[in-house]
Amino acid sequence: MPGEGTRLDRPREPRRVRLPRWDPEAFGKASEQIARFLGTGRFIAWMTVFVAVWLGWNILAPERLRFDSYPFIFLTLMLSLQASYSAPLILLAQYRQADRDRVTLEQDRARDDRSIADTEFLAREIAALRMGLGEVATRDWIRSQFQELIRDQERDRATPPSGAPSPGAPPSDAPRDESDR
What we know:
The protein contains 4 helices and no strands. By secondary structure, the chain is mainly α. Helix 1 crosses helix 3. The longest helix is centred in the middle third of the chain and has 61 residues, at 73-133. It is elongated. The protein starts with 23 loop residues before the first helix and ends in a 23-residue tail after the last helix. The model has no long low-confidence stretch (mean pLDDT 85).
């Protein structure tokens, strides 16, 4: 229908703004890599070389080739720009690391809780087994009983019975039992 875009009784179709889209995870990983690089000695060395070359060029080069004279305002602007970008990237990397640490801590706590529960279960099982074994003969108890029996046997052999002649005593004339009579 002609003129449909001008009707006041219908709302307009929302305009779609074409903004660039990016993956937040990829951006976070990139910021962590940049933050890691900014925290290295290599970055400090390269930044020192860059500033030294900049200063050397703008001090020692012929006047017509210099692009940033003595107060080095352009260098200050470049360093400020680098700092203004690196600070948020470092903060973003720190937040991501804090999130990872929090997740790791939660996983460690859950694993510790499971370990404690397993340990308590095993302690209860061992206690139940000990209570059950309290009435069962153990190897040490049987060994002690055998040793006691052996001692009793050796003692019985060493002491003659009350009616038996002692070794080395002459035999008596009395019959030993009824078959001898």
